[in-house]
């Protein structure tokens, strides 16, 4: 960044030809060599632009100084900035937090008061995202040859969007990007040619979108060099969809006609073009593979030239690694990037590394990064361990004492240390706690690399849902009222994310007793199913959307366990190093052994019989 003039574009974005691999790699080398200077310049630029916003003015009092910024601007959570976001959503000028106009609000999968958090976004921010996506290409090319000799079957989807009272678009970050000019009018890049026509990605009916994208991917199977989706959960959903629909897909390929229920005009038109004419031989071949009893290695069979599967398998997505490995036939699983609605953060410079070895290098011109040190051990002295993206056993880290903990800068993080990420963005977030816990694993040039450890306070996650211990407690509290009215007490509960089938679902283990006599009560299935539904109705809107609209979460299950099960669980946890005095029932279980202890004592299972209410607000 110091050589030449790397910042031709506003917002510290270097300009270069994305088809030029060498130029891309050089930019990455410059960015990672000059971390300190770049971070300082990013902060300077953000302060200079925004010092006069209502928000910063209140702390900086007209000063443009970085030290004053760090001394006076507080490290905040969403609740602290929510009033500002809500004012903007309701029509106040966005310059209360950002000098550059906020053009839309990005609805995050993190929630506040049950509704998605909303993150500000600007026109320039789309360019920042494009810059970031472009940099993924040379990194991949460094490790995999010939990606310009075929196509990528990426299954990408848009989600429902809404408008705020002031008329601003409110939608998820990827929906915003796919609908932008930056995506739709992207210059041709020979390393990044997709099998899915944009019309199929942009189709708002997720079933038609999925069907059409798979159809296009199957028709072009000989050209496909890589397959993927953003998250592992979405890719597995596509495999399940294929399992349920391959006969119809083959019939379309055989006849050259798209099914009548594909009514989206854009989709019909482009898919008909891709189908082109009847292809009976291709249909036979796909039918042959799909009708095989075992779907082990199906990806390699259907798309024989595939070199890897591009899906995020870190964090909560790690729970899908073994299922993906089963379907993939040994293909590498590639997590390319770490990003959020707040900001795009980091790139995996070793894309072929095993899922548990993946680290992301934070890109220093994306935002100004700070880090809150997190204690490595919890009360019981148990080390943090990556275990399906959340910590083992009593899995919550102790809340960092916000007041007396100072942040450290990107260049000052220490190898092996755990931190919570704090960002100051170009879009109006200042010293904002993202909620992700990261561990420093090494350095790429001078840029630290981080393993994603887990998200603060999240105990359950199947897709993009993020359920905290508190959310779960609230939902269980509502449901237990139903059994209490019948003289039944819930004496203990815990949970786990069951991903053994697609889609995965939440499981609650309940130990129940009759009031007074301490016996396992007789349970009415209807009542227990109502409990399952009540828990679902009480979870946040992202859970309910995944469950109802996206069908990416299956019906919630309550498994009633026999008396003494939770004592057995405690004995197990103590045998694993938990202290007896401080033992608290873990509200979420990750360890296979602990799940076996519970499962072997299950006396009855009940499932929710209806999807919970969800609407776009
Ligand atoms: P959202 O705000 O809904 O876009 O969700 C962003 C969050 O998803 C991040 O803060 C992380 O908790 C999680 N996330 C995103 N990318 C990754 C990744 N590569 N590995 C693990 N977790 C991720």
TrEMBL record:
Superkingdom of origin organism: Eukaryota
InterPro entries associated with the record: GH3, GH3_C, GH3_M
Coiled-coil residue windows: 21-48
Residue ranges constituting the GH3 middle domain according to the UniProt record: 360-455
Ribonucleoprotein among keywords: no
Keyword terms, alphabetized: Coiled coil, Ligase
Domain spans labelled GH3 C-terminal: 470-592
Family: Belongs to the IAA-amido conjugating enzyme family.
PANTHER family for the chain: GH3 DOMAIN-CONTAINING PROTEIN, INDOLE-3-ACETIC ACID-AMIDO SYNTHETASE GH3.17
Annotated protein name in UniProt: Indole-3-acetic acid-amido synthetase GH3.17-like
């Amino acid at each position: 960044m110091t050589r030449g003039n790397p910042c031709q574009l506003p917002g510290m974005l270097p300009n270069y030809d994305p088809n030029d691999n060498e130029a891309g790699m050089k930019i990455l080398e410059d960015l990672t060599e000059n971390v300190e200077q770049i971070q300082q310049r990013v902060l300077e630029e953000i302060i200079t632009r925004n010092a006069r916003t209502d928000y910063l003015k209140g702390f900086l009092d007209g000063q443009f100084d970085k030290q004053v910024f760090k001394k006076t601007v507080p490290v905040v959570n969403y609740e602290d900035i929510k009033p500002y976001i809500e004012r903007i959503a309701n029509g106040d000028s966005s310059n209360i937090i950002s000098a550059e106009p906020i053009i839309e609000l990005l609805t995050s999968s993190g929630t506040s008061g049950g509704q998605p958090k909303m993150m500000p976004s600007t026109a320039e921010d789309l360019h920042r995202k494009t810059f970031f996506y472009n940099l993924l290409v040379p990194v991949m090319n460094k490790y995999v040859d010939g990606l310009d000799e075929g196509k990528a079957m990426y299954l990408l989807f848009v989600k429902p969007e809404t408008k705020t009272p002031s008329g601003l678009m409110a939608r998820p970050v990827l929906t915003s990007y796919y609908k932008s000019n930056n995506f739709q009018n992207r210059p041709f890049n020979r390393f990044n040619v997709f099998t899915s026509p944009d019309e199929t990605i942009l189709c708002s009916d997720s079933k038609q979108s999925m069907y059409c994208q798979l159809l296009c991917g199957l028709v072009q199977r000989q050209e496909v060099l890589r397959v993927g989706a953003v998250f592992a959960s979405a890719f597995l959903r596509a495999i399940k969809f294929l399992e349920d629909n391959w006969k119809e897909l083959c019939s379309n390929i055989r006849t050259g006609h798209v099914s009548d229920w594909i009514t989206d005009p854009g989709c019909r038109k482009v898919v008909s073009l891709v189908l082109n004419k009847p292809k009976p031989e291709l249909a036979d071949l796909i039918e042959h593979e799909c009708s095989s009893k075992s779907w082990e290695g199906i990806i390699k069979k259907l798309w024989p030239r595939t070199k890897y599967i591009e899906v995020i398998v870190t964090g909560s997505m790690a729970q899908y690694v073994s299922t993906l490995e089963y379907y993939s036939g040994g293909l590498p699983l590639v997590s390319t990037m770490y990003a959020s609605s707040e900001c795009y953060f980091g790139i995996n410079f070793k894309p072929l590394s095993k899922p548990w070895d993946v680290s992301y290098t934070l890109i220093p011109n994306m935002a100004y990064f700070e880090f809150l040190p997190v204690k490595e051990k919890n009360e019981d002295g148990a080390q943090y361990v990556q275990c399906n993206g959340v910590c083992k056993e009593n899995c919550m880290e102790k809340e960092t004492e916000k007041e007396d903990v100072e942040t450290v800068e990107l260049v000052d993080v220490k190898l092996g240390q755990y931190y919570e990420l704090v960002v100051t963005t170009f879009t109006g977030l200042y010293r904002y706690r993202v909620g992700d816990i990261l561990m420093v694993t090494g350095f790429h040039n001078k840029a630290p690399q981080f393993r994603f450890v887990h998200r603060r306070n999240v105990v359950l996650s199947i897709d993009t849902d993020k359920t905290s211990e508190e959310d779960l407690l609230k939902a269980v509290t509502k449901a237990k009222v139903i059994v209490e009215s019948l003289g039944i007490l819930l004496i203990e509960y815990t949970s786990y994310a069951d991903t053994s089938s697609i889609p995965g679902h939440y499981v609650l283990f309940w130990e129940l007793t009759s009031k007074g006599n301490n016996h396992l009560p007789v349970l009415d299935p209807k009542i227990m199913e109502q409990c399952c539904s009540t828990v679902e109705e009480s979870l946040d809107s992202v859970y309910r959307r995944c469950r109802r609209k996206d069908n990416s979460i299956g019906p919630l299950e309550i498994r009633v366990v026999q008396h003494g099960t939770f004592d057995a669980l405690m004995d197990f946890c103590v045998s694993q190093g938990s202290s007896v005095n401080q033992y608290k029932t873990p509200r979420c279980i990750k360890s296979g052994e602990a799940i076996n202890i519970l499962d072997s004592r299950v006396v009855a299972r009940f499932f929710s019989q209806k999807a919970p209410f969800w609407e776009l607000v």
